[in-house]
Amino acid sequence: MILISATPSPFARKVRIALMEKGVPFTLQNEIPWHADTQTSRYNPLEQLPVLIPDDADPVFESSHIMEWIEWRYPTPPMLPDAPNEALEAKQVQVIAEGVLDATVLLFWEMQRPQPSAEWAQRQLRKVKGGLTELNRRVGTREHVVGDRFGLADIAVIALLGNQDIVIETGMIPLWQAYAPDMAPWHELYPNLARFEALHRDRPSVRATAPVMFALTEKIV
Ligand SMILES: N[C@@H](CCC(=O)N[C@@H](CS)C(=O)NCC(=O)O)C(=O)O
User: Fold this and answer.
1) What is the mean pLDDT of residues 142-157?
2) 38 Cα to the center of ligand 1, angstroms
3) What is the third-level CATH fold of 2-73?
4) pTM of this structure
5) CA–CA separation, 37 and 126 (whole Å)
6) Model confidence band, residue 170 (pLDDT cutoffs 50, 70, 90)
7) Residue 199: what pLDDT?
8) CA 141 / ligand 1 centre spacing (Å)
9) What is the CA angle 113-118-123, rounded to 5?
10) Cβ of 9 less than 6 Å from ligand 1
11) What's the pLDDT band for 66 if we cut at 50, 70, 90?
12) Would you say the CB of residue 147 lies under 6 angstroms from ligand 1?
């Protein structure tokens, strides 16, 4: 089984963590999905990674859908709580984390334009702040975001926070502050998330998948 991934991708990281937690062997195929030589469009008409290419089935794409696929195919150990209401809560957490990631991606590309739209940037920054504030509230003082074992909600939040580290590393915060002056590195604004991240940082699947930025050399926007 092959996973088309990218070293900084929070979406692919979710899948990598889940496969590692379940002990499922896979070959990592790192790409830059924004470059012309990416294989992504051969397998996903939406031209996005991650794409999971099983040995015996059609390619599976979109990270949340891949997470479902993995859960069906490799149920042990489960990444979802047993109680249906908690399983739904975990998926809701994933939705929030994905929304913040999507807004962050939109902001990244908007900032590449000679004249970013202030209205658009502020709209996306409200989503980033709103989502992180809500996740900070949900995490509270808990060891796991939902339930009492490591799972989907933890993975979604960890992937999101790793992406926020990339935001800091790539110098985005000062650019964001031009549109939202109260923006700051996430650890300073969200102490519950900072504690949560520190608690899980040394877990092997988390440490092995820490994001690494790549260099974009082709014109995209
Ligand atoms: N909702 C998608 C988002 C995936 C996504 O945005 N992937 C990025 C890499 S991190 C990508 O391939 N971007 C290329 C593009 O959007 O054209 C998912 O969860 O899989």
Assistant:
1) 98
2) 13
3) Glutaredoxin (3.40.30)
4) 0.98
5) 35
6) very high
7) 98
8) 31
9) 110
10) yes
11) very high
12) no
The residue type at 37: D
Q: Which fold has domain 84-207?
A: Glutathione S-transferase Yfyf (Class Pi); Chain A, domain 2 (1.20.1050)
Does residue 66's CB lie within 6 angstroms of at least one atom of ligand 1? Answer: no
Q: Is the CB of 47 under 6 A from ligand 1?
A: yes
**pLDDT for residue 104:** 98
What sections of 84-190 are H helices per DSSP? 84-112, 118-139, 152-169, 172-177, 186-189
Distance, CA of 121 to CA of 7 (rounded, Å): 26
Counting ligand 1 atoms within 8 A of each CB, the residue from 48, 63, 155 with the most, and so the one to mutate, is: 48
pLDDT of res. 41: 96
Single out the residue of 100, 185, 183 nearest to residue 138, CA to CA.
100
Domain segments of the chain: what residues?
Answer: 2-73, 84-207
Residue 27: how many CB atoms within 10 A of its CB?
9
